[in-house]
Amino acid sequence: MVDRSLSFARDAAVLDANALRDIALEAGADDVGLVSLDDPALDDQRRDILAAFPFTRTLVSFIVRMNRENIRSPARSAANVEFHHAADDCDEVARDIVHALQARGVRAAYPSMGFPMEASRWPDKMWIISHKPVAVAAGLGQMGIHRNVIHPTFGNFILLGTVAVDIELEARARPLDFNPCFECKLCVAACPTGAIAPDGHFDFAACYTHNYREFMGGFGEWAETIADSKSARAYRAKVSDAETVSMWQSLAFGPNYKAAYCMAVCPAGADVIGAYQADKKRYLQEIVDPLQKKAETVYVVADSDAETYVTRRFPAKTPKRVGSTPRPVTIEGFLSGLRLFFQRGKSTGLDAVYHFVFTGADRRSATVVIANKMLSVDDGLVGDSRLTVTADSETWLRFMRKETSLVWALLRGKIRLRGDPRLLLAFGRCFPG
Prior knowledge:
Blueprint: H1 4-13, H2 17-26, E1 31-36, H3 46-52, E2 58-65, H4 68-72, H5 76-103, E3 108-109, H6 131-137, E4 142-143, E5 149-150, E6 158-165, H7 186-190, H8 204-211, H9 216-228, H10 232-238, H11 241-253, H12 261-265, H13 273-278, H14 280-293, E7 297-301, H15 305-313, E8 318-322, H16 331-341, E9 352-359, E10 364-371, E11 374-379, E12 387-392, H17 393-400, H18 406-411, E13 415-419, H19 422-429
Parallel strand pairs: 7-8, 9-12
Antiparallel strand pairs: 1-2, 2-6, 3-6, 4-5, 9-10, 10-11, 12-13
């Protein structure tokens, strides 16, 4: 009788980097990169990966190409059907890789390319593996100004997948030694919310509020709109019939991205750049202009930089005010969220150091500096502050979630201010909603 465990062990022993790549390519990947979990580039990812897959020693990063013209279409249904099918392909490739490795006696596992995620963690990090930094570390591409990974051949018309493997690699991965992004700024021109700035600044809140309207936070706000509406007429006064149908479609067929125009117009990559170089004027007319001129609703937070941008830049587009999400449930969530939702346009002229001292169940102290339209957040109380906010942590979080008023908290001593109280109003303007 053959001892299959010994056969599996021998198979696993000969699985070097080339063998792993071949397995991934045979499974349907369009390109493959490998990176050791102990690579310094993954220092901020390692703990989360090991929490889900404690056997991990190597990550197999792979890409699946998408059909470009679907993504470029102003018709969002055409773009989104390609996103959904390519995402399914990613998961199928990852599953087949794991199946092949398992047959060879190698422990391996994969997370979803996108969804489902660990929803119980919301609004903190829901995903197990961040595919983008893994792909960059594995040498599959570099991040463009639009925050998409650009492959040197296929450009940014790709989706990413990752497989965690219990195999040690001898050689370290080498990241791509050049960035395919040549900063043409077409993504800046096409973004309907102004989330991508010419100087490289990225407004996460602007992108998240519009493009992910039918995903986690936007869906929650829509559900609350239903709950708050006293009648069907009151609901329709806030939400158009088309928006309701769009939400139904997302529930039935998967959530739809509202834009992704930054990906659509990107000409980087050897397979993509030819049309742009051959006739830039035609490229702009056929690919960029239709997205810029498309009449559509753009979801924005009231008094945000995005609202100002849409009104000024795109007369054919209609900004619609929606609530700001996600709402913090921990002090760490509040502090980390400041970096994501800071509106630098609203901070013009503000130069202040803020000290935050949180007491109660979630004790923490932090220093927030807003100056020259930039934000920094540091642990502890650093330097001299112009305003010190001392707050019971639970009361502060309820205030952030609009479940209690600032006046109530001040009168009861749950929140105390030392310094110019007008600076708190100025602080709030930098984080509208």
